Amino acid sequence: MSITSPGILFGVSIVAGFIGAMSGMGGGIVLIPALTLFGVGIKHAIAISIVSVIATSSGAASAYVRDGVTNLKIGMFLEMFTILGAIVGATVTLASSDQPLFIAFGLVLLLSWGTLFLRKAQHADYLKPADPISRWLELRGGYYDHAENRQIDYEGRRGWLGGPCMFGAGFIAGLLGIGAGALKVLILDLAMGLPPKVSTTTSNLIIGVTALAGTSIYIAAGYVDPGLAAPVIIGVVAGAFIGTRLLKRLSNQAIRQFFLVVLLLLGVEMILRGIGVFGHGV
Amino acid sequence: MNPTPREPSDATTAARREARLEHDMELLVGYILLAGVLFSIVLLLTGLVWQYVRTGSLHLKYLIAGMNYFDFLVHDLRAMFQLSGWGPRAFIDLGIAALLFTPYIRVVSSMVFFAVEERNWKYTAFTAFVGAVLTYSLFLR
């Protein structure tokens, strides 16, 4: 661990939470590269980040759940897979050297970046009959869409595929200390055929429990320093709070695109550090 | 002519009951998450502000080594009280504990809700599995 002061970590975390919310990618994906740039070792950065993910996702999920958009049953079914993935992912990180983690982080950042563009507005028939396993799993639901002013009912499909895919998303979350929300949303959208708002909010619910499973592995390994985690948690939550409120008022997409370019550069930078382009400064 | 009022069918009654239970569960889960995160943030902020006022710095570096968080919490709080009583570090320890407990309590209460209110044994089993794995991982050393 470096000598980075908690005051600097606090400032970096506010900026990370802010950019994470403005870009829609989540705080962890910005926080970890930022912490490593300020000299924090990547495993410590991952461990601190995953604790802060519990706070940001639980805070956001509390509002979404009360709005009635989150599908609790789908979330609770998929959590069985993500927590196992997170435990395995965190264990792999502890056994790994730093370079592969930088490369994996950069690749996941670029992949998550790509999924933002893959996600197009869907006009799917959400009430297509589900397969017998998904019906048995009760993966149906409905919510009132205030923007469209109508009730949207849906049948979640392919639970047999969504579960194992979620193990992979949980693995990435535990491995890299991030929410991996972009991957979870992609699985809920494409594999399980859920409406976009249900995918986003249900993914948020799953992230908190997944992060807790990963956190416990990092704590047991001695990678979490509560004195350093505290300013990071407060900073990321504050940054995300400001970013979310500002985002609601902005109609201009240019600012969001600016932050997406920042993330693209961070992804490339992490990969270059992983393959040693910047010397031994990993 | 007005249509004759009809008794709601069993299917309608069951659907209404399902919708009401779903709403109750949403409120339970939503408020647990909200309360847990707010409580944790208040504790962490209190600890950090107290530390800053006392020392002029946020520096409060310490590691948890060779024990799970709850062993550490009990051990650390006991050591603090024996030395100097309440301090910033106690608030930070408890703030992190509150944060860790938030999703955990959410899972355990969902399990109880599925078992007692919904009598949905499938989802009681699913949440029990999640609760068991989380309990195991939280108490790892």
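qc> DSSP finds four helices and no strands in chain B.
qc> done
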